[in-house]
Amino acid sequence: MKSETDKPRILIIDDNPSIHEDFRKILTVDRETQSLADAANAFFGDDEGGSNDIEGGPPLEVELDSAYQGQEGYQKVLSAMMEGRPYTLAFCDIRMPPGWDGLTTIEHLWQADPNLQVVICSAYSDNTWADISRRLGRSDRLLILKKPFDNAEVMQLAVALIEKRRLINAASVKQVELEAMVQERTQQLEQRDQALRQKQKLESIGSLAGGVAHEFNNLLQAIGGYTSFAMEEIDPEGQAYNDLTHVVEATSRASEITGQLLSFSRKQTPKRRFVLLKRFLIRR
């Protein structure tokens, strides 16, 4: 059995109290009547339990509320929305003097709850379907039930519209889930796009660095080569020879740097090697 909060909620809006009682007899069964029926079934051995079924099937597990004027029904729908327990369906009379008529009431009901399913109950022919459509628009949320109504017809309408509202709610939940999935996927694609752009930038920088390093390395080879030639022509004990030695060392260090740039541009794996820190400290 469903809990009170899980039951579909139906609102009856009619100025005639007897109409409310008729709906209760058709759609629900009070606990006292149900207990008596269960006791009778147990005593007489009626396992089918059909004695308390009205014409059109067994009663529904619904929460039934009453409003006797359109303004009252509107306030109940507003309160239900604020509580987070909206009505599934409203049966609304077309004439409810001295307050709002049924069409005015429905306009206000849909302002409060756009998804509310509504059945107009009327014994009069002064409002044609064309008149109602011009006033309320063509909507799949609206049906007409002529008085005096048939019990089975009321039950069928209630069952169909309750299921329709359930499917609408399920679709809304699914839509929210899909929107969240799309948003998450979009964020992932944006992150991948940013990563790809960054990779392309690094590749461009690497190509530029490789080109510069290649040209610079050619210059260093020329400097180193001509310096070595000059050192062969001078006295190794002189100051000039000592100065040129520093030029060769600087050229060698610059060549190492260009080699690193070329490795970066070619995406080569850096090679590990042992070095003497003393050598670098002396250079400093």
Automatic annotation (TrEMBL):
GO molecular function: ATP binding; phosphorelay sensor kinase activity
Ranges where the Response regulatory domain occurs: 9-162
UniProt xrefs under Pfam families: Response_reg
Catalytic reaction annotation: ATP + protein L-histidine = ADP + protein N-phospho-L-histidine
Family annotation (InterPro entries): CheY-like_superfamily (IPR011006), HisK_dim/P_dom (IPR003661), HisK_dim/P_sf (IPR036097), Sig_transdc_resp-reg_receiver (IPR001789)
PANTHER family: C4-DICARBOXYLATE TRANSPORT SENSOR PROTEIN DCTB (PTHR43065:SF46), SENSOR HISTIDINE KINASE (PTHR43065)
UniProt protein name: histidine kinase
Organism: Rhodopirellula sallentina SM41
